[in-house]
Amino acid sequence: QSQLQSTGGESGGVRALHVTAPRTATLSFYFMWKMIFFLTIKFLDIWDVDVLKRPQEINKQGHHTHLYSSDFLIVRRTLEFQIKITFDRPYKPAEDKFAVEFVIGPSPQYSKGTYIPVFPSEERQSVWRGRIVETSDNVVTMGITTSPECIVGKYMIYIGVVTPYGIRRTRRDPSTDIYILFNPWSPADPVFLDDEEEREECVMNELGIIYHGAYDDVSERAWNYGQFEFGVLDACLFIMDKADMPLSNRGDVIKVTRVASAMLNSRDDDGVLVGNWSGDYTYGVPPTSWTGSVEILLDYAGSRGTPVCYAQCWVYAAVFNTFLRCLGIPGRVVTNFFSAHDNDGNLKMDIILDENGKLDRNRTKDSIWNYHCWNECFMARSDLPPGFGGWQVVDATPQETSDGMFRCGPASVAAVKHGQICYPFDAPFVFAEVNSDVIFYRRQKDGTLEVVKVNPTHVGRMVLTKAVLHDGRRDITDQYKFPEGSPEERRVLEKAEEFGCQREKASLPQSDVEVEIPTLDVRVGDNFDVTLQFKNHSDQRRTADVYVTGTVVYYTGVPSAEVVFKTPKVKLDPLQNKDEKVLVRGEDYMHKLVEQANIHFITTGKIKETGQIITAMKVITIHNPKLIVKVTGSPRVSEEMYVSVEFTNPFKFNLENVHLRMEGPGIMPFKRTSITWTETFSPRRAGSTKLIASLDCAALRQVYGETELTIQQ
Ligand SMILES: *[C@@H]1O[C@H](CO)[C@@H](O)[C@H](O)[C@H]1NC(C)=O
Ligand SMILES: CC(=O)N[C@H]1CO[C@H](CO)[C@@H](O)[C@@H]1O
After folding, report:
1. What are phi and psi for residue 468, nearest 5 degrees?
2. What GO annotations for molecular function exist for this entry (predicted)?
3. Ligand 2 centre and the CA of 572: distance in Å?
């Protein structure tokens, strides 16, 4: 510490220049200054530093940071930005020596990248480049180009002037602090994404759609990521502080995303969100009730790191997505339908049947989620062989530990697709989530298990993300796996086995009878028939003893309550197709439904003549009523508008303790209410946007509505 301070400390009496922070500086810094130290007669004095952050000024253009609601200059790595320095007299390049100094954190060091001097002359350059753009009278406009690896965060600026008495440094001025973010527009930055539309979607879009439900009955949630809202950037940086992440790692996108995947959940590190899948959310916000990330991040940062209650997978993924987009890392939320989980790279999901082919609930682990949401973020992977850069899986939902913490990724999507799961981080886990087989076993009298059926297509049935720049779906299953049954797929599975994944290889005779359950569109309260479609492939008579169970399940597959159990006997004539219907009445399930209103039907059975086992599974999503959101008033910036939300109770009983939430990026901060149904708001910004509302009460969850609107300037 204090070579520098003591040099400066002799200075007494120099007007307007004070030797203050940085508190410590390294020797290297001192020597560098020593080398360029030479006497000037009338050394420069600094009157003003302007970081040109007003909307119409140069730095707001080109950096794609105009949408941030912030009092500070925000720029992206490797793209030049300009600052204006006003001296007490004209600057003389031959004699006057000064540097713009960037400082981040409490103990700046040149070698750690936390202290960066930038010089105005071509001859003398540090890791960041500086140049004089313009000189007029006493004002110098300086262009500064940061390095592509520089730390992402909030820097302080000082101007240091060389004088005969040492280095004079300007006083700290918080208004000149500057945020430096990742830059997906720059080929030099590891997060470079060479597609303007993808960047617009995955960095700049504040609105998203998150898919859920079932692969053959997909539902959508609108989400306000709100990465540009006031305070969100600080909250994202706070998350890294809270993780005690060394500043010198914060320029490395691989490390930043890995730390964030651990910090977004509260397990083992008091991270952002507490998971709760219990169905009882008395002491927090039910996961289905959130409509955006802003409230969550502001609560977390505002309380200096008290975890927010409660989240399930899409909430983790949505808040993670805000973190990524806010810092300038291209990010998107993806949904994997029928996601295997909890199995350490073992590619088997076991379902145990008893001797007669009836499901044995007690012995069957619940480890297939109806769907699971995670994030993809885009980056180069200089730590992996060529070809594994691009989209990477990161997952903040606490499922399994990785190197001792609940976190997952970044894992290269391309590596998962090719079975190259030896590369960091957590690729075997992601591989199993999309590639596991469902294995049905029959428990013999002596307790041994016999494999009776293998279903290789159930898990990882479809991977969806929002389309680029419009509200459609984009099926990206082919980025995770080769087509089912293709030669490439077989090679990939063999490759994964070389790296330790275990599979079931029993070869089973093709059963000559099949059963399927087609999907259904059911509204809450409806009676409906579940159809079992039997198909013969044999030219003989077949008789089957069939078990059908319908169980209300959480989206994690965890069963809640059984709503139907039937044991029809089915007789099939040779070559006959036959439908068997099972009636499910509204009153059977209404009081048993849990939040996402899924009923999981499993049918199993044994063919009398052959002893073969037949199985089928189907998740039926019961559809909740929707909210009708309407806005009135003239859609102009700063003018008052009204929003009304309409909801009709579909039940014969009253709903109590009903909570309503709504928000819209750029137009309305989140609102909570349990009584008022009309709200006023004044749009902050022009453009097309959405207003999203959710309704929640213990008896009815996951009720949403939204409306699109375009705000004029
Ligand atoms: C879930 O939330 C309920 C109610 O807020 C609470 O009683 C329960 O302990 C929570 N469960 C977990 C695992 O945190
Ligand atoms: C009556 C009937 O539908 N028979 C079918 C039995 O199965 C064979 C093989 O799948 C079909 O070709 C028949 O049409």
Report:
1. -80, 125
2. metal ion binding; protein-glutamine gamma-glutamyltransferase activity
3. 11
Decide if 459 contacts 453 (C-beta within 8 A): no
Rounded distance between C-alpha atoms, residue 393 and residue 371, angstroms? 16
Query: Two tokens at 105?
Result: 């954190």
Q: What separation in Å is there between the alpha carbon of 511 and the centre of ligand 2?
A: 14
Give pLDDT tens digits for 441-488: 988 889 899 898 888 899 999 999 999 999 999 999 999 999 988 999
Rounded Cα distance between 416 and 493, Å, is 10
- pLDDT of amino acid 43: 78
Q: Angle CA(448)–CA(607)–CA(355) in degrees, nearest 5?
A: 25
Tell me the per-residue pLDDT of 412-437, one tens digit each, with 9 for 90 and over: 999 999 999 999 999 999 999 999 99
Q: Active-site residue among 63, 212, 341, 372?
A: 372
Instruction: Tell which phi-psi region holds residue 657, choosing left (phi > 0), alpha (psi between -120 and 50) or beta.
Output: left
pTM of the model: 0.89
Q: Extract the annotated binding site for Ca(2+).
A: 435, 437, 484, 489
Of 109, 107, 105, 127, nearest to 118 by C-alpha is: 127
CATH number of the domain residue 563 falls in: 2.60.40.10
User: Same structural domain for residues 395 and 454?
Assistant: yes
395 in active site: yes
Rounded to whole angstroms, the Cα distance separating 297 from 329 reads: 17
Same domain, 277 and 326: yes
> Which domain, by its residues, includes 633?
628-711
Counting the structural domains of the chain, the total is: 4
- Whether 537 is a known active-site residue: answer no
